[in-house]
Amino acid sequence: MDIQKVGVVGAGQMGNGIAHVFALAGYQVLLNDVNGDSLNKAVATISKNLDRQVRSAKITEGDKIAALSRISTTMSLPDLGQSDLVIEAATEKEAVKNAIFETLKPHLLPHTILSSNTSSISITRLASRTDRPEKFMGFHFMNPVPVMQLVELIRGIATDVATYDTLHSVVKRLGKIAASAEDFPAFIVNRILMPMINEAVYTLYEGVGNVQSIDQSLKLGANHPMGPLELADFIGLDTCLAIMNVLHDGLADTKYRPCPLLTKYVEAGWLGRKTQRGFYDYRGEIPIPTR
Ligand code: CAA
Description:
Layout lengths: L4 E5 L3 H12 L3 E5 L3 H20 L5 H9 L1 E4 L10 E4 L5 H11 L8 E4 L6 H6 L7 E6 L8 E6 L5 H13 L3 E5 L7 H17 L5 H12 L5 H8 L1 H15 L8 H8 L12 E2 L6 E2 L2
Parallel strand pairs: 1-2, 1-4, 2-3, 4-5, 5-6, 7-8
Antiparallel strand pairs: 6-7, 9-10
Bound molecules: acetoacetyl-coenzyme A.
């Protein structure tokens, strides 16, 4: 199927990154959010990130202008019904995602493919609540979307081959690489990454190391671009906790129990970079470890 119009639900850090890469690849993008300010902020962020790519000669000024001209915004979810492909990138709560697909249902074209950028929720379960489980897929981008090469493709139990093939060619047109994952809790990337981050928080909780020594160890000792605690702040501690809970509940194994210290940070509202405080305090000139 030829995809031209793409609707993106949610203008947060994933949604704006997804809108960015689709517009740059030539798709018409309609970006939706319940909050008008978030839409304005998302367009400003996209423009700033496109500038970074112009500065490093990855794209031209003309590419940037063309990409921005392909992005429109709306606060009305039904407007996305005319899209060939909808990518839901709203908050990681199953009830919110179900409500979005429910609202879209009466407005969709018969051929519209629905997808979710969920990092861990069952694709089969989300699909079962829609009118088109065979045209529903997990479409999981990594943060920062314009930089990271991978997209995870997750088929639900009912997803048909045509839908998979279509999204696979979309990934190629974006200049990214697809990895297929079966529909089990947290798929591949987060099944492996989150227990590592959670273990780093246990290492901190048990006093084996402090924030700086833990991050330095993985950066310099394992060549990771960011330490696990710095990465947790970058992803969002609420998202990390939500994914650990999905692993713990979905696989019923105590090895996935979220660290109480991770829960404590989330309860404090210290969610990482987006709230300016997490394992580091970002309110000053340079990030300061909070432990
Ligand atoms: N948009 C466009 N370009 C960007 C960008 C953005 N949002 N963020 C960074 N860049 C570009 C920079 O302009 C720079 O480009 P040049 O090299 O051409 O100058 C390049 O990326 C590197 O950036 P920086 O020099 O600013 O910083 P860095 O070298 O420290 O790299 C990083 C930053 C790419 C984020 C790197 O630290 C990294 O790879 N970190 C790990 C990220 C990661 O693991 N992501 C996956 C998280 S898991 C996930 O997303 C799944 C989930 O469901 C939770």
